[in-house]
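Good day; I would like, with your permission, to put a structural problem before you. A protein sequence and the structure tokens that stand for its backbone fold form the material at issue. Thank you for your consideration; the sequence and its tokens are set out here:
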Amino acid sequence: MTRNPPGSEDALLARLVAQLGSLNGSVELGIGDDAAVLAGGWCTSLDLLVEDVHFRMRTTSAHDLGWKAIAVNLSDLAAMGAEPVCALVGLGMPAAIAPETLDELFAGFDACSSAYGAQIAGGDVSSAPVLTLAVTVFGRTERPARRDGAVPGDLVCVTGPLGGSRAGLELLEGLAVSLPERAVLIERHVRPVPLIAEGRILARTSHAMMDLSDGLATDARRLASASGVAVRIDLDRVPVQAGAERIAQAVGRAPGWFAAAGGEDYELVCALPRAAFELSELDLWEVGEIVDGPAGEIGFTGAGSDDPPRGFDHLLS
């Protein structure tokens, strides 16, 4: 069994929350979910993308980077069951950046925001040592989904195959594996798709939900921790993106382990009553179960469970 390690992102957030005052009347849900919920059904979230931490310009086009900066934030709205409304973009630029690169970056912003109805409504610019993007999104929903409602007996389900983004990253970083899915895997990493429609559907029936940005192994634990329960994941039942099995083999890992540890898939993970799972209009994969136990405790079965996977943590990885 594993718990939140000291010095992790989660520990830092807990430290921050402990020093903050109580919520005011306009903030219904603060730190600890995919997005904050404001009065009137407004949801808002912010994500950072920092060069050589979240992306490398030698492996990512400026257009794809602009798309991804918007998409990863919209995925947080999807996890709340919210419909996108608008976005604010903060841009820190190194002095040597070319105007043509900025044009492509802005085109990527526009392509993703237009595709999902998230009008870019403002932002800020500054000089910076490396290219840095900070995007804030706003959306609305009548019934925000949260990550703190899972109960023992719920099924843990995901909306699609995992491990594709991590496999794409391995290929971009130079892993020499020839396979027909190469282009698809790379696209899974550089151009994620926010599951807005799926989030709206699951918000009606799930007890808890969040997006998979840091990997199932980390994010399922976070969902369980927020809900005050434990979770069990069967690595043999984790759906694996086509082609990622070959990448897992190349790095010496079982496919389910690789898929559970890999981040940035931006699928949704949810805790569903069995009846809701059986009646769902979506194709969902059951990967585990919510159980009684210490909050945030996670256990694994299946191939690779003897060396439990751990997803991405910005302060530990």
Remarks:
- The chain has a mean pLDDT of 93.
- Residues 14-140 form a domain with the 60s Ribosomal Protein L30; Chain: A; fold (CATH 3.30.1330.10).
- Residues 62-79 form the longest helix (18 residues).
